[in-house]
Structures are given as C-alpha cells and as structure tokens.
Amino acid sequence: MVTEPIAGWVWGRNLRVFCELLSHYAGYAFDELDWESIEAGVRDTDDEAPDGWYSYPLVGTSAILEITLAQAVGGEEVSVSVAGAATPELQLRTDTLLSAFAAV
C-alpha cells in the first residue's frame, strides 16, 4: 500500500525530539549517531530548492520511514516530509508530532 508523504514543519530546536519519537513509533532505536548524521545533513539544506533537501531512513521493526528535511530560508523552521507511514495509526501519530513540534 502506497501512501502520500505527510508533510509539515517543526521548529529547529524540536527536530531531535521529533526524530526520536517518530523513530520510537517505527520501532527504530534512534541514537546519537543518527542525530549527528541528521544534524550534519540538514545543516546546508534549503526548503526552497528542489535538490536542497536531506533524506534519512528510519528502518524499524514496525515501519520503514524516510524523513526528508530542509531548513527554511531565513527562519528557524525545518520543513519535514515523512514517507512510509502506511497505517492509519502511524499517519495520525506522524501528523500529531508535526503539529505539536510546530507549536512549542
């Protein structure tokens, strides 16, 4: 079953916690090396450039997700797209995380 990616944004300061919680829901053991890779990968991104995004896989025991990230030009926001959330429960959790971490 192919689902559309779930897209939104989070404040940059919330990106790590977003990734950790999303990983938990996918059954993936997110660790410091994952964070270092994402932090370095997103550093020179640009959400206004089609080829300016960074992708990172979360291969868990209950889902395989691909998160694609890019910094907003001139802002503190990070645009996020999550592909692979195949179940209604994971879709809802992903959407809720995006909403929550854009608000706080």
Characteristic terms for this protein:
104 residues; alpha+beta; 3 helices; single chain; 4-stranded antiparallel β-sheet
Write a structural description.
- Strands 1-4-3-2 form a four-stranded antiparallel β-sheet.
- By secondary structure, the protein is of the alpha+beta class.
- It has helices at about 15-25, 30-40, 90-104, and strands spanning about 5-10, 55-60, 65-70, 75-85.
Give a short synopsis of this structure.
The chain has 104 residues and is α+β, with helices and mostly antiparallel strands.
Rg computed from alpha carbons, rounded to a whole number of angstroms: 13 Å
Helix content: 25-40%
For the record, give the distance between the C-alpha atoms at the N and C termini, rounded to a whole number: 33 Å
Q: In what order do the strands lie side by side in the largest sheet?
A: 1-4-3-2
Biggest sheet descriptor:
4 strands, antiparallel
Q: What is the structural class?
A: alpha+beta
SSE map:
Elements lengths: L5 E6 L3 H12 L5 H11 L11 E6 L4 E8 L5 E7 L4 H16 L1
Antiparallel strand pairs: 1-4, 2-3, 3-4
Helix pairs in contact: 1-3
